[in-house]
Design a protein that fits this description.
Helix Hairpins; single chain; Glucose Permease (Domain IIA); eleven-stranded antiparallel beta sheet
């Protein structure tokens, strides 16, 4: 099977492409089936007129999938490099052992050649008793056995070196294949991002597009609230009071989830072009593309999903307080994981964002949302 397929088999979180559908671990058959379905869907849509929003979302889904694939390729490359280094270290040690043993065997052969078998008989004739002869013979037997062991070890070490060299060559070839796949995938990803940027440049001034994006964001808020409601119903199964107290004590002292500045604040806003009122249940922080996003406090990952209007999203539970991280280009955690404050949970992107590369950040207590800016230090 091709190396690309091997890499795909390692992907454990794949964008669902459906609002509110959580990402979770899938077996290889499911992953390959989803890829084929996405390709078929994209091909069929080429034969009919699509809305601007559909075109942007299709591109974002493909970019997201390719980004995950590229990340997995990089992981595979790093694993190969570690394996290669380990084989090199073993090969070096085995070669040292082989050379040392070779010298020992060589010295014994030279000694035997110089001394010859006549010297052995001379020694034997000089012994004064039967017991001395037995000791000498026993000693000679041990020397012969040791020589045999050394020769056997010498052959084994030589075979081991040859085997390790072959394994090293194989791993190096596989690494080269992975690097070729990475170069090809990087090129495809770059092309897709250019296509999306061109399309976004066309549609960002389109009122219908903006209205539709705002509508999908409202739906995303609704999905987040529904998910939190479900988590709250399960709250009795969690020992979370200590975590909640810890989070509450950090009000006004929480670290920023990402380096940047707020470009869209919490609350109601009047859209300058549409003249309509919209509500932001969190804040949007402008940051460098793919900047690391970190958990603001310890908690549990309750939800990893992709949503229209929010892109890749992570929901953390802090004992009844919740933080939401949206517009991620990459997710680095899985549902159910425990995280500590400052731990990397994803990377900033511009998926489903009207403001470019931003992190959408929310804070909730139960189903009540708060202004995150008042909690950050």
């Amino acid at each position: 099977m091709k190396i690309l397929v091997e890499i795909i088999l390692g992907i454990f979180i794949l964008m669902s492409g459906l609002p509110g559908f959580a990402q979770k671990k899938k077996n290889p058959e499911e992953i390959l089936k989803e890829i084929k379905q996405l390709e078929a869907a994209l091909k069929s849509k080429q034969n009919r007129e699509r809305s601007l929003l559909e075109q942007v979302e299709d591109l974002e889904k493909e970019i997201n999938l390719r980004q995950k694939l590229l990340t997995e390729i990089e992981n595979q490359k790093q694993q190969k490099e570690k394996k290669i280094e380990k084989i090199k270290a073993n090969l070096k040690n085995t070669t040292i052992e082989y050379n040392t043993l070779k010298k020992i065997v060589a010295r014994r052969i030279v000694s035997m050649y110089k001394r010859g078998r006549i010297a052995d008989w001379e020694v034997l004739l000089t012994v004064k008793s039967l017991s001395q002869a037995r000791v000498w013979l026993k000693y000679q037997k041990r020397i012969v056995e040791n020589d045999r062991r050394n020769l056997k070890l010498l052959i084994e070490k030589k075979n081991s070196i040859q085997t390790q060299k072959k394994r090293l060559e194989k791993e190096l070839n596989e690494k080269e294949k992975i690097l070729a796949e990475k170069r090809a995938e990087s090129k495809k990803l770059k092309e897709k991002k250019k296509s999306r940027e061109k399309l976004l440049a066309r549609v960002r001034q389109d009122k219908n597009f903006i209205l539709e994006k705002l509508r999908t964001r409202r739906l995303a808020y609704k999905e987040i609230k529904n998910r939190i409601s479900r988590e709250e119903k399960r709250r009795k199964t969690f020992a979370s009071a200590a975590v909640a107290k810890e989070f509450e004590a950090l009000k006004g002292k929480l670290p920023w989830p990402v380096k940047g500045r707020i470009v869209s604040s919490y609350g109601r806003h009047k859209h300058p072009a549409l003249k309509t009122w919209t509500e932001n249940l969190g804040i949007d922080i402008l940051a460098k593309n793919r900047e690391v996003v970190r958990a603001v406090s310890r908690g549990t990952v309750r939800w990893v999903t992709w949503q229209r209007g929010m892109g890749n999203l992570v929901l953390l539970d802090h004992g009844g307080y919740y933080t939401v991280y949206g517009h991620l280009s990459e997710v680095l955690v899985a549902s159910g994981e425990e995280v500590v404050g400052g731990e990397a949970i994803g990377r900033v992107g511009d998926s489903q964002s009207l403001n470019g590369s931003t992190l959408h950040f929310e804070i909730w207590k139960g189903t009540t949302h708060y202004n995150p800016a008042t909690w950050l230090r």
